[in-house]
Structures are given as C-alpha cells and as structure tokens.
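Dear Dr. H.,

I hope your travels went smoothly. While you were away I took the liberty of generating a structure for the chain from your last submission, since the lab meeting agenda had it listed for discussion. I wanted you to have the full record in hand beforehand rather than looking at slides cold. The sequence, exactly as received, is reproduced here:
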Amino acid sequence: MNKVFLYNDNIGFCELLDYMGEDLDIVNSARVSFDVSHTKLEERDEKLIKYLYRNKHTSPFEHCTIKFACKVPLSAARQHMRHRTWSYNEVSRRYTDSNLEFYIPKDFRPQAETNRQASIHDGNMINPVVKSIKGGTQDWVTRADEALLSHTRKSVQLYNTFLDSGICREQARMVLPQNMYCNYIATANLLNVLKFIGLRNKPDAQWEIKMLAGQMGKFVEELFPVAWESFNEIIK
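The corresponding predicted structure, in token form, is as follows:
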C-alpha cells in the first residue's frame, strides 16, 4: 500500500510516489572506486553497507532517491521544509482557492514542563474548557476542539469574504490558520531521508511530523532493508 493516512481523519497522508535504486546500488556506488560491480547482493555486500553507514562513508547512499506525496498540517509541513537538502513543490494558495481542508484533533497534548518546545506524549490527552458562560441553571462551556472548529470556520468565512470582495488570493490566504492541510511533493536521496527520519521520529518530536517520519521509515524499510537495518543499528 503506497498511500497511508496518518491522523485518523482520512485526510493527512504519506504516499510513496517513486524511487530509484536498491541496496545493491549502494554497494556498487562504493565499489566503483575499485572498478568493481556486482549484479546480486551478497552477504559481504550487506556487511559493507553496514560498515559504510557506521563509519560515516555516506556518499554511496546518495545515489538512491525517494519521492513522496505528503499532506500534513501547515505547522508540520514547515518543519519538514527546514530540511533543505530535500526538493519540494507544494499546492500554492496564490493559484487556487479550492480543496481547503483542515486538521481538527479531538484531543490535545499538554505542554512539557521541562522542554519549552515539546509536548507530553504519554497518552494523557486533554480537551480543556476554554470558555464558560454562566447560565440560569447551568454553565455553557466551550472545549478546545469546539473552539478550534469554530475558529477554523470563521477563518474560512473571512477568506471567502475577502475573495468575494475582490481581494487577491495571495493576500486573502493570510487569514487561513496553521491547521490548514498542506499538500506537497518531497524528494530526497536516501541519506537525507534517513537523516530526516533520525531527527523527526524521536520521542520528543512533534507528534504530527513524527507520524510522517515514521511512515517514511516503513517505506524505506521495504525498499532498502539492509540500509534501514544499518541506520537502526546506529540510532539505537
């Protein structure tokens, strides 16, 4: 299955579009120094791949590439695009105002007390009351998920009002929130895919991008099993 949904909403996904190479290409890229080429992966070739990765002789891994289609919240997409060795092309809201979709979680992670940039991933999700109005016999409360949905709807309504008023798409998009889904193509060589996974699939990574990195890792494991094993021996 090349397309896998990430967030239990049947919207966000990671899809394997294309790839070039296999574990054998890593071996042959390394052995070209000796003008030697193999047609079949042997046990000693597997050992060579592990030796190369363990000792940071990583250029042979750059001769394999993987292309993904990604659809993740804008906040996660911008983290991905900090990895500047990748090539990216995304849907531009300068050119289209159709197919707006949004990430609306039902529960939220608490802020970590000792890490200013991280959330708590222990499974204890929260959906706190963010607004309360006194009623005659009861209080009328708004929880975080309801507030997010309301905010998103108001943002889209204002966006459409701007467009209907003649404001250009490239400025009207300013009002769209960061939970908007970003749809893009991302391509990188195997080495830099592994670097991305190593950084973004850590326990303290943002959960939304961790799901993306984790699925990319599953694709890499299928395509380059020996390279993947070598990678995991180092990061453990």
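Two observations you may find useful: The CA atoms of residues 56 and 71 lie 32 Å apart. The two ends are 27 Å apart (CA to CA).

With kind regards,
E. W.
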